[in-house]
Amino acid sequence: MRFVVWMAVLVAGGLVVPETAFAAEGLPGDSMSLLWAIPFAGILLSIATGPLFFPHFWEHHYGKIAAFWAVLVVVPLTLGFGFSTAMASVLHTMLLEYMSFIILLFALFTISGGILVAGNIHGTPMVNTGLLLIGAIMASIVGTTGASMILIRPIIRANDGRKHNAHVIIFFIFLVSNIGGSLTPLGDPPLFLGFLRGVDFFWTTTHMLPSATFIVVILLAVFYLLDTMLYRREGEMRVVDPTPDSRVRIRGLINAPLLGGVIAAILMSGIWDPGITFTVHGTELELQNLLRDAIIVGLAFVSLAVSRQEFRDANGFNWEPILEVAKLFAGIFICIIPVIAILQAGLDGAFAPLVSLVTGAAGEPNNVAYFWLTGTLSGFLDNAPTYLVFFEMAGGNPQELMTVLAPTLTAISAGAVYMGALTYIGNAPNFMVYAIARSQGIAMPSFFGYILWSVAILVPVFILATFIFIA
Predict the structure, then answer these.
(1) Is the C or the N end of the chain the one with fewer CB within 10 Å?
(2) Which residues neighbour 253 within 8 Å (Cβ) at sequence distance 6 or greater?
(3) In a 10 Å sphere around its CB, with 0-12 CB exposed, 13-18 middle and 19+ buried, how is residue 304 labelled?
(4) What pLDDT, in 10s, does the model give residues 328-351?
């Protein structure tokens, strides 16, 4: 329960702090050097290397590491630009973006954790392909984290009698933990950040559906052929299924309408605008967004009250994964503040060489460069902050990005979501799925072994998608 208490205190604290006047002017990004990006690079490098190279230390101290990098931003901001400007920048980011971001992840994680797929399924190529398709569809409804946590154990049980089963988990990460979450802001954290920045809820669906469908169909076809080949090769070598046969049932369906409530709350905040705002330390909070977040938190607590604990226990549910995400992303959101300020300066800022890579000779955006740069960095850093960086690089104006620059926003969104699958650290569920599979005795490839799989399978598909949908 400590995460629930921590979340409640954080939400309450953000709403009841005393009113004080803070400077409204932004940071002077055109005069800030690249040194301001060191904490952002540092926290992302820590996230990339910590769980892999010093897991025991990381497990016990990741919150302190995130706080260290955040302090390296807040203190220099305060010394360089004054307490008021620094506090206004931090509160603007944390209250308008971080709080809604982590509240949604918390709710999806909590509610989906009460849904249990019980029983045993036999992992034939057709069954496995069907499970991956169902998971890919679910990912845009309950999020990549929610879909991954609901389905990973059933798909492991389905294939625990097979000698070759690591490839099933690899394609699970491709499709369920990443690409399947590309159709709504609920699906993947980068898209929800876009929604918080003003991108319409269904804009993502209409503009991402063609390329997502294309990629999912190709990957499912490749998986079916590969799984069929390995299934036939095993033949009589398949061991007796260690999981007793039992009827497949979905338990905890009382959580389904709660997920519907989350979707309804998000749609409400995008449609209803009463024009009422509250000012907290110079940051304006709109009523519809406060109401949305309150409803979503309330639905999560309802799920905790009505779900049976035995279902959560069977899912291996605990608070540590979402607590880790909450702490790390608090640090990321603070560390990205000066980076965004510099990017907003465009060619006048220290990131001018990077901006020039995604800008044509006449100043027009290079959508292919946006797709591959966003994607490559998403695979090796984290796709949510990477999306924010390139969103700002493309101008940061949601109305312009949804209309005149719609192909550019599509390229950024596709790169962030699709290529989060390139490594174990590209998206939050990837490493969680890897850890669960290993704990169940599946011989998962190493960090670099997984990259070989993604380069061999995903990169050719992404190249093909580039010519059809991006270029």
Answers:
(1) N
(2) 115
(3) middle
(4) 889 988 998 998 888 878 788 898
